[in-house]
Task: structure prediction
Amino acid sequence: MKDLSNYRKSYEKSELLEATIPEDPINLFHKWFYEAEEFGGIEEVNAMTVATHGLDGFPKSRVVLLKKFSEEGFIFYTNYNSEKGKAMAINPNVCLSFFWHSMERQVIIKGRAEKTPTLLSDNYFDSRPDGSKLGAIVSPQSDVIPSREYLDQQLKILEQAFEGKAIPRPSHWGGYLVRPLEVEFWQGRANRLHDRIRYHLEEDYSWTIDRLSP
Ligand SMILES: Cc1cc2nc3c(=O)[nH]c(=O)nc-3n(C[C@H](O)[C@H](O)[C@H](O)COP(=O)(O)O)c2cc1C
Result:
């Protein structure tokens, strides 16, 4: 057995104080996102986990790539028939999270997922390389398949079928917009007394800001 009890790190890079934060969590997310990018040391700043309530009663989280964020929310693309797609069709409540280790920061977003308008999904699909487009068509994401060879063969068949032709977005693939209801910002601090600031969306669409105990 590997003992990890000595794996310990003191977090001392920054602080998160009420006096310096905006009223709106998207502004703070924007600031942190670009600081993480500029600081470096993170290969995919836009990688995030999406946790869903599974149809089997279990929560499940997996990494996807954030492709857009704005006041409206956070957009990622996937297969609508995948395990997460089926889960969100029944229960759209999801949790997104980011861990930007070089900044000693974590962001946790609770929100509701909805499919993006088809035009937005079409535009994003069209911007992808042909290989990724065919990959989206060929992969029955999350289904059991007979073998790796099966996938490669299916791809070859599609490559021939679409040679020289435009590749349309399959209807089973597209975006989700997660509209945030709660956004928590976590800044690592010394002695495990981290800063945690939570924004909660009220009925009048204003944000309540609270400090949580670490
Ligand atoms: C760095 C990284 C980025 C990923 N990006 C995506 C993505 O944007 N969309 C997606 O559907 N899957 C993405 N995946 C794969 C998912 O983690 C997952 O395996 C897949 O979506 C199937 O999940 P599900 O069976 O729980 O629905 C990514 C995986 C990694 C490690």
